[in-house]
Structure formats: C-alpha cells, structure tokens
Amino acid sequence: MPYALFCQEAKLSKAYPTEADVWRLARQSGLVVDAVSDEERQEPRPVLDNDYEIKPCQPDPDEDPARNKAEAERDARSVLQLGSKAA
Description:
This protein has 87 residues and is α+β, with helices and mostly antiparallel strands. The protein has one domain. 37% of the residues lie in helices and 25% in strands. The protein is built from two helices and five strands; from the N terminus they run E-E-H-E-E-E-H. The protein has a three-stranded antiparallel sheet with strand order 2-1-5, covered by helices on one side. A two-stranded antiparallel sheet has the order 3-4.
C-alpha cells in the first residue's frame, strides 16, 4: 500500500511506495521536527509539523509510486550537486 502526506483529509503529496519514503521527503522539505518522547526514552523522536500526517492511500489513476520515488531521489541528488557547486 502506498503512502502520502496529508493535512486533515487532504492529500498533499504524491504517493510513494513506503511510509519511510514519505518521512524522508518530509524531512527534506523541513516538515519534521524532533520532539522529546515520553520519559522512558531520552532521545527525541521525529514528529510532523502542524497537522501533517503520513497515511496509506490509493495512488491517483495515472500515478506510479515507484516512479514518484525515483523522481524525488533524482531531484534530491540534483539539489545536492547544485549546493556543492555553490560552495
């Protein structure tokens, strides 16, 4: 089952093959904040900012979650390459 980023019931992102893929993209977009968890665990755990949620979803009829993931990875690599050239 693919996953996507939601705010309330509105789907905000493309569908991706796994929940971990959406978490990675949310981090890259600055939507993840570290929050201190309960007293049993000392390390912070990731939490989505505002009312965002990552939920299972059906992809749109013309959408391919695997292609979405490949495009996002390619975009992330090009941003990293552009950033290293500017330094």
